[in-house]
Amino acid sequence: MTDEADSDGITDSPRKGPTLSTSTSSFEALDPHDPNLSRLANTLFSKTSDYLYGELTSTLDDYKLLENMNRTTITKYSDMKHIASNVSKSMAELIENYETLLPLLQQIEQIEDSIGKLEQAAYKLDAYSKRLEAKFKNLEKR
Fold first, then answer.
1. Do residues 9 and 16 lie in contact, with contact meaning Cβ atoms separated by under 8 Å?
2. Domain limits at 59?
């Protein structure tokens, strides 16, 4: 047994020598196990188990997050579908109302054109009456 092995905390197996042998063929089922090797193996399996559990848990959390994101997206798309449906109905109603009012709007435009023509005629008539009045005053003065 070397001083290095003792300083590292590695002890020799009572029957087979150093416990950190890379050979697996020296294991015999009925031999008593080295307690240090058993502790190290238990620690290894425990830490491996913890690591794998953490990996699986994080993957599960990722899937749960994706599921929640998908549910939220479905809700948002459903809301947008309802909004789009309502906008479509409103547009259809507006188009229907416009088509119903179109003849009236055309009549209003015709009336507006007629009013414009009447206004022009009124201006011409006013100008003509002022000229007549001026002529009448000229005739009265003579």
1. no
2. 32-141
Q: Is residue 22 part of a domain?
A: no
Domain contains 121? yes
What would the two tokens of residue 106 be? Answer: 């055309």
Based on the structure, what is the number of domains in the chain? 1
Residue the block writes with tokens 């109302």: 97
Contact 33, 27 (CB under 8 A): no
Residue 102 sits at φ, ψ, to 5 deg, of -55, -45
In a domain, 105, yes or no: yes
**Whole-angstrom Cα distance, residue 15 to residue 26?**
10
Rounded Cα gap, residues 129 and 78, in angstroms: 72
Residue 17 backbone dihedrals phi, psi, to 5 degrees: 100, -145
Indicate whether this model's pTM tops 0.85. Answer: no
Residue 36 contacts residue 42 (beta carbons within 8 Å): no
Measure the CA–CA gap between 21 and 31, rounded to whole angstroms: 16
Instruction: Answer whether residue 1 is part of any domain.
Output: no
CB under 8 Å, gap of 24 or more: what pairs does 60-66 form?
none
pLDDT digits (tens, 9 = 90+) for 2-44: 444 444 454 554 555 555 555 554 555 555 678 888 899 899 9
